[in-house]
Design brief:
16-stranded antiparallel beta barrel, 16 strands, 5 helices
Length: about 375
């Protein structure tokens, strides 16, 4: 089973077991217990963030959440540098065909910055909202950022406030072959009524990683999402990965999602009685001179309680600088889809795009 997980994860990371890997030491050391494949974890974060806030981007940053960064216990001490400080910034922007735009600029100040698994700091953030093309408005936010190992469990949190209530996220996952993760995320709904009336969404759930053999793995996510008001939404998500060409880092994936709302149409966010999507995806991940480059694309089907089956399209690309090779690090991502977010609609021609760029330096 351990060998199976190493091969599947190494394909998704663009390498082969035993091959030299441009990246952090011991990232795929023999015998490592690898966790949920990174691209599926990221896809779930993007999907969850769309459900919580309407496409505000992952509340847990790519740099923090990447299972590709996680170092196995046996090699963790040797791979991590001494504790230091770090500063960084991140910019995020999203737009959809309904005229909703969101931009965020955040500055991170880490008092302790050992690695992606051990840090403690503060994020100060300003968010700009233009819901339904009615005009821009701003909100300021502040978060406590922290990550810590608790035995075989990894805790990550970004908890703060927007001046009105608690917002942010917290997650806890273990490092065993059948990986479990528990999470809670809370944010404002970025629609006109959401901003005017203070409508928030709280999403709590769990995920599990189920490896089958050296080329196949399943993941499952279940959650409950409570909105301000009476609406409670039940979520189910599942993914299946099949490794096509290990030497290319090429995988085929089948992603599915479903939700059911108890009080559809309560406010102005996208909320049919139910929604379902099936999305086949091809993904390639490579390391070029230590830089991680990922591309993914898929075409599938989606439907909700008020419409017929229609096409579902998804494209994603991201990059990240070599880990541990410099005090500087940079990452970026771009996503385009026609799957409705909380701020979107199911009308024909709907589209949504988002991108983010992050830069940090360790001292």
């Amino acid at each position: 089973m351990m060998r199976n997980r190493i091969l599947v994860a190494s394909v998704l990371l663009g390498t082969l077991p035993g091959a030299a890997m441009p990246g952090p030491p011991a990232r795929l050391a023999p015998g490592a217990e690898l966790s949920l494949p990174y691209e599926l974890a990221l896809w779930d974060e993007l999907a969850l963030s769309e459900e919580v806030a309407g496409g505000a981007g992952p509340t847990i940053s790519v740099a923090s959440a990447s299972s590709a960064e996680r170092v196995p216990p046996a090699g963790r001490a040797a791979a991590e540098p001494n504790s230091s400080h770090a500063v960084g910034g991140e910019f995020f922007y999203s737009s959809d065909s309904d005229g909703t735009e969101v931009a965020r600029a955040g500055a991170d100040f880490d008092l302790r910055a050992v690695s992606a698994e051990h840090y403690l700091g503060v994020r100060v953030e300003r968010a700009w909202y233009n819901p339904g093309n009615r005009g821009w408005e701003t909100r300021d936010r502040i978060y406590l950022r922290a990550a810590e190992r608790l035995g075989n469990w990894q805790l990550r949190a970004r908890a703060g406030t927007d001046g009105d209530t608690v917002i942010g996220s917290i997650s806890l996952n273990d490092d065993v072959p059948i990986r479990k993760e528990f999470f809670v995320e809370r944010d404002i709904v970025e629609t006109p009524q959401g901003l005017d009336r203070g409508i928030y969404s709280t999403f709590a759930g769990a995920a599990v990683d189920l490896p089958v053999n050296d080329r196949n793995v399943f993941t499952a996510v279940a959650g409950v999402q409570a909105f301000t008001g009476d609406n409670v939404r039940l979520h189910l998500r599942g993914s299946y990965i099949h490794v096509l060409r290990p030497e290319w880092g090429l995988s085929a994936q089948l992603r599915g999602r479903y939700f059911h709302s108890s009080d559809p149409g309560e406010f102005d966010y996208y909320s049919p009685r139910w929604f379902a999507e099936v999305l086949p995806v091809l993904q390639m991940r490579r390391f070029l001179g230590g830089w991680e480059v990922v591309g993914a694309a898929g075409v599938g089907l989606q439907r909700d309680s008020g419409s017929d089956w229609r096409s579902s399209r998804y494209a994603h690309a991201r990059f990240r600088s070599p880990l541990g090779s410099s005090d500087w690090s940079v990452n970026g991502a771009f996503t385009c889809t026609n799957t409705p977010s909380v701020t979107g609609t199911a009308q024909s021609g709907y589209s949504y795009v988002q991108f983010n760029l992050g830069l940090s330096r360790r001292f």
